Amino acid sequence: MQKIIVKSPRGNSLASQLVSLYNSFKDLSFNEPRNFDLSNIDWFFPLLVLPLCAHINCFKSQFSKNENNPNHSYLDTVSFPLGVDSVSVFQQQVQAHKTFIPISVLKREKGPDRERLESIFSMIVYKTLGSVPGAQNAVHYPITELVTNIFDHSKQDRGFIFAQFYPKKNYLDICIVDCGRGLSKAYEEEKSLKLSDADSIVEVLKGHSTKPSVERGYGVRTSKRVVCECLGGEFVLLSGAAALVVNERQERMVELPGFFWQGVIVAYRIPKPAGPIDISPYLE
Amino acid sequence: MVTDEKYTIDVAKILAPIVGSRDLMPILAEAVNKADVHSVDLDFSKVEFVSRSAAHALLLMKEDLQRKWRNKKFISFVNASDNVQEMFRIVAANRAVPKTNDLNIKIEKTDINSLAKCSC
Q1: B117 in a structural domain
Q2: How many CB atoms lie within 10 A of CB A42?
Q3: Residue B86: which CATH number?
Q4: Nearest-CA distance B79 → chain A (Å)
Q5: Global pTM?
Q6: How large is the average pLDDT for residues A90-114?
Q7: In A, which residues are within 8 Å of B20 by CB distance?
Q8: Per the domain annotation, does B8 fall within a domain?
């Protein structure tokens, strides 16, 4: 099993974290198990932890950490790498570790129990960010839209979700991951469109759903608008070998040569809201 | 025997306090179909939030069950909070008059090395 030395990002931004993720996964066949060496990592963040977790769960990859580094006990605290897949275990973990939200694994076959786990996850995120008017909608909207996409489009039966609040930095990072067919393949299989990964992301932003109804296709675009325009956050959407990186100032499409994530990774950062929020102008 | 009485379904109990997933709507439809009545109230009193996708699926389910030839059901959404009502209104308005999605999207292209340099 190939050993991969995972490196820390050079900065705090989601873009820096994306570069770290890119360097960890590039030049490798996606669906082969690997041994991720995390001993050089000083701090862990959702955009790295969750794709690693998904890869370990989906492809039986392994990992090693530095037992002498106190920061590495964080991985146990958030239930890395297996995550939790039931409300009762989620509640036990939250009770035991208070400010840490465990990695949650959403399984299609669990039906309404999956919905309840997603609900409690989203409610804990809302509670963590504080209860200013309108925050509830702003937290729940992107989580629900992005998670339902996994079970509507990915052809996978598992999705992964994880969040971490940073009290000193006053923001919360969320990551949502699947190892499904990805955007490009979804357009090819559902609409016979041959698109590059970057063009598939653009189609998603235009609201062109892979489903026939013109009433669909709003989820990702409006979630991005809620995160970036309404909350002043950052947003990353990655599929295959391309990623969209958005902050308040600009939208950039990044080609990722030598890299391939079969499925979709969404990561976003929400600053803790200081005043009332109204997401309705961004829902179109 | 189907009666004219009303039957109430607690949506949060059947699904969850946050109704987000489109793919779970058949579970709710099954609960509605099992009721031996024409009119069914879907009670949202314990629902905190309904996603846009779930609101769309719920509206479609309502129309489909009402349009059926046999075992027709008339569904009402009751006790919904203001934000849940607002979501239904947004989706219903969009259903009536869909917005055109042909946006002119301009995204700057960059490479990973440039992103690495400017992202610290």
Answers
A1: no
A2: 10
A3: 3.30.750.24
A4: 18
A5: 0.94
A6: 93
A7: 115, 118-119, 122, 140, 143-145, 147-148
A8: yes
